[in-house]
Amino acid sequence: MPDRESVEASRKERERERHRLEILKAAERVFIRKGYHAATMEEIAQEAEFAVGTLYNFFKSKDDLYARVIDGIAQNFTKQFEANVLSTDDPEQAIATLIELRLTHFEDHRGFFRVFLEMAPGSHVDPTRAFPEDCAALYERYVGAVTEIFKRGISQHVFDETDPMYLALCLEGVINAFVAYWSKREPTESLSVRVEKMKREFIGRIRWKPRAGESEEAAQPRLKDIDPKVIAPGTG
């Protein structure tokens, strides 16, 4: 049975974590309202209903707090990605689930994504330019995992034969382009409509299909002869 001191220490740790999360949520709201440059630690403290000094007990600076907001959003996405996408055996369903997850996650944090994209020129093309270093590594692992899904789909004749890394980066490019566009303009369609359109337009174009005049049976030897290097992640 835990002693009184360990119980008290555990309670304090939980309370400290709760306060940290409250500050992060308040910071995200202030960054959305004011933008990064205009936001101040004083405003964030007021939003979180803490003294300014309390914020500095958790975060070294506004830069550090901003980076931790990004990290929290990225970690939340990663947990959902692992639970809902990587656990799906069917490659096509995994990619469909990923598209829905990416667009839903963006919708949940659309205001902050606008601030995020404004912070680094070109970040709508290469998100790693605006990521803190630890999040950039997380993003690289994510792209690698998506590449593996496409690799599996190609080997199972679900997706057309091509370099799976190119498919992963093409999907990222498409999604990031829409994220940048919707960050500046209010979408005119519901989230569900946007999700279904993107699934149809992207997945419909990469599904495996016999070449013109070729039957599915005739295509099998061709698929078996694909150079393994072509479907190896990280090539190209």
How does this model look, in words?
The protein is an all-alpha fold. It is 71% helix and 0% strand. It has helices at 4-34, 41-48, 52-58, 62-85, 91-108, 110-119, 133-155, 164-184, 191-206, 216-224. 23% of the residues are buried.
Mean of residue pLDDT?
85
The CATH topology of the largest domain is what? Tetracycline Repressor, domain 2
Net shape: elongated
CATH class of the largest domain: Mainly Alpha
Q: Major β-sheet, in short?
A: none
- Rg, rounded, reads 22 Å
List the secondary-structure elements in sequence, H or E.
HHHHHHHHHH
Helix content: over 70%
Number of strands: 0
Supply the CATH architecture of the largest domain: Orthogonal Bundle
The proportion of residues in beta strands is under 5%
Could you give me the name of the CATH homologous superfamily of the largest domain?
Answer: Tetracycline Repressor, domain 2
Stretches with pLDDT under 50, minimum 5 residues: 221-236
Total domain modules: 2
Helix-strand makeup class:
mainly alpha
**Terminal Cα separation, in Å?**
58 Å
Number of helices, where a helix is a run of at least 4 consecutive DSSP H or I residues? 10
